């Protein structure tokens, strides 16, 4: 396990970046032009980002991104 000390402003920026990346993945997962293998990789990436968001975000930050409530991301 690694530790990281960040200021409140840096923490808000980290949360923003993670949420923005997760939104991009959700957007891309709806695109029919993207291959299914790529979508599987995106789902894996989404899971990693979700775990990170759970560590740095509040419950209100995390709730909209719960995989089971998101039809485009399968909870593995």
Explain this structure to me?
- With 76 residues, the chain is mostly helical.
- The protein contains three helices and no strands.
- The radius of gyration is 13 Å and the shape is elongated.
Provide the low-confidence segments as ranges: none
Shape: elongated
Largest β-sheet summary: none
Distance between the first and last residues' Cα: 23 Å
The count of strands amounts to 0
Provide mean pLDDT, rounded.
89
Structural class: mainly alpha
CA radius of gyration is: 13 Å
Instruction: Give the fraction of residues assigned to helices.
Output: 55-70%
The portion of residues forming beta strands comes to under 5%
Number of helices: 3
Question: What's the gist of this structure?
Answer:
The model has no long low-confidence stretch (mean pLDDT 89). The protein is mainly alpha-helical. It is built from 3 helices and no strands.
Secondary structure layout plus pairing:
Blueprint: H1 8-29, H2 36-56, H3 59-62
List the main descriptive attributes of the protein structure presented here.
76 residues, mainly alpha, 3 helices
